[in-house]
Amino acid sequence: MANLDYAEEKIVQENVANESVPYTGAGDQVDVFGDEEQHDIRYKTLSWQLVAALMITEIVSTGMLTLPNAMAVVGIVPSLILTVFLGVFALYTAKLLIDFKHNHPEVHNMGDAGFIMFGPVGREVFSVGSLIFAIFCVGALVLSGQQALSVLSDNGLCATVLLVIFSLATFLVSLPRTLAQLSWVGLLSAAFIGICGLSGMIGAGANSVPGRVVVATVPNNFYEAFLAITGPVFAYAGHFMFFVLISEMKRPEDAMKAAWVLQGFSTTFYAVFSVVVYAYIGSTVASPALLSLPPIWAKVSFAFGLVNFLITGAIYAHTAAKLVFVRVFRGTHHMYTHTVLGWSTWVGLCFASVAVSFVLASAVPIFSYLTGITASLFASWYTYGVAGFFWLYDTFHLKGGLDALKRRRLGTSLAVATVLAGAFMCVAGTYVSIKLIADAYDAGLVGKPFTC
Questions:
Q1: Which residues contact 219 (CB under 8 A, 6 or more apart)?
Q2: CA-to-CA distance for 402 and 236, rounded, in angstroms?
Q3: Containing domain of residue 207, as a range?
Q4: What average pLDDT does the structure give for the chain?
Q5: 407-419 pLDDT, tens digit each
Q6: Which residues on neighbouring strands pair with residue 46, listed in sequence order?
Q7: Beta pairing partners, 249
Q8: What pLDDT does residue 223 have?
Q9: How many separate domains does the chain show?
Q10: Which residues of the chain have pLDDT under 70?
Q11: Does a structural domain hold residue 8?
């Protein structure tokens, strides 16, 4: 495609959109939605500001509520340093991911990127990993929603009933076919999670714990320390959705602006929230931190957080459905036309995403622990490690092979370090998560499936 002139390229794109050219995988340089001028359903309508709101909604959610507890385990200084460092690191990996998307406009999701770098096996591994991670994120958020509803209702309803109610609401919100139709509720969600954190800080400040213990550092063994820092590590998880978001932008070249807004907001917000809550509550702060607040403040904070849990869960369910939908219908008119098959498949996929998440969250006693393992296996790579592969691949194949890698010593070194960091987070995170499950079983702390 690089050798075709503009007119020829337009012809190829139109042929793909009209199904005369089947999608053959990475390398054809045609973006997933093609020329949308004549399409009934148009995907490429997001501005970078709305993408930033969706990124904040997706990433700055329940993760922030674990940070004060992590600070209590390792101390304020190492936790704060790690939070800021990981925010900067996530901005760097976002830049590598966005550059890869610009170089390969046909990439719609991590599976497409895996195909480019590692062939059919890479596509399946990256696709399945993305789907599993999205489903577990939905499950974690419907559980958070159920917990918020329990607090707001003073446990007035059965936990299973609350889980059903919240799951049904998540399914309904996930139904729009394009992310632009979710972007305005995403903007609302981003505002509400900010208010949730602000009310939590005010509640902690107004009800500080007498005699609280606040320390700069806490000596711990590797297991306890890394278990605590998984909170900051995975609070930035969510890069696996960036390809999907950028694919629906009007101007993909503006994607880095959204990444700057995301990381600037999330890093600052995480640092301030964790320090303030820990400073006023001390070493007894719970995870999630809102449970350490007096009942009235916990209700106020959870009420605002509930909106974010709902919308974020819907975005993850939408993404899980779209990963499969695009894989099945890419290059066909069902993607962009209101067909019975297209809509029935889409609704079915959204329902399946939430239904599987509901079953896992309600029927698996160790689901919350499995979420930690899932984050370790996939988020460590999608948010951090795989970005190093993106840079190495494009530098080798687009800039001049091994000579290009040798000339760009700093970039090569950073990319290799990024891959190694992702590998370390994956292995260490999986180890501590499995050990945590074993310890919980030994202590009799593993719960039972929800019952009324």
A1: none
A2: 32
A3: 39-442
A4: 87
A5: 999 999 999 999 9
A6: 249
A7: 46
A8: 81
A9: 1
A10: 1-29, 445-452
A11: no
Report the pLDDT value the prediction gives residue 98, as an integer from 0 to 100: 96
Domain assignment present for 263: yes
pLDDT of residue 25: 47
Q: Which amino acid is at 300?
A: V
Which CATH number goes with the domain that contains 337?
Answer: 1.10.4160.10
Contact assessment for residue 317 and residue 350, using Cβ atoms and an 8 Å cutoff: yes
The predicted structure's pLDDT at residue 199: 94
Enter the tokens of residue 60.
């700055």
Our CA dihedral for 217, 223, 227, 233, rounded to 10 degrees, sits at 80
Express each pLDDT in 179-204 by its tens digit.
999 988 888 998 999 999 999 999 99
Tell me whether the omega of the peptide bond preceding residue 288 falls within 30 degrees of 0, making it cis. Answer: yes
Amino acid 10: pLDDT:
40
- Separation in Å, CA 80 to CA 41, 65, 432: 45, 15, 21
* Residue 158 in domain: yes
Asked if the structure places residue 421 within a domain, the reply is yes
pLDDT at 448: 59
Of 253, 217, 195, 178, nearest in space to 79 by CA: 217
CA–CA separation, 357 and 23 (whole Å): 30
Instruction: Judge contact between 48 and 255, C-beta under 8 A.
Output: yes
Inter-residue long-range contacts of 41-44, CB under 8 Å, 24+ positions, other chains counted: 41/177, 41/178, 41/335, 41/336, 41/337, 41/338, 42/178, 42/336, 43/178, 43/179, 43/180, 43/247, 43/248, 43/336, 44/247, 44/248, 44/249, 44/250
Residue with tokens 């993305």: 130
pTM: 0.89
Q: How far apart are CA 184 and CA 25, in angstroms?
A: 32
The separation between CA 431 and the C-alpha centre of its own chain, rounded to angstroms, equals: 22
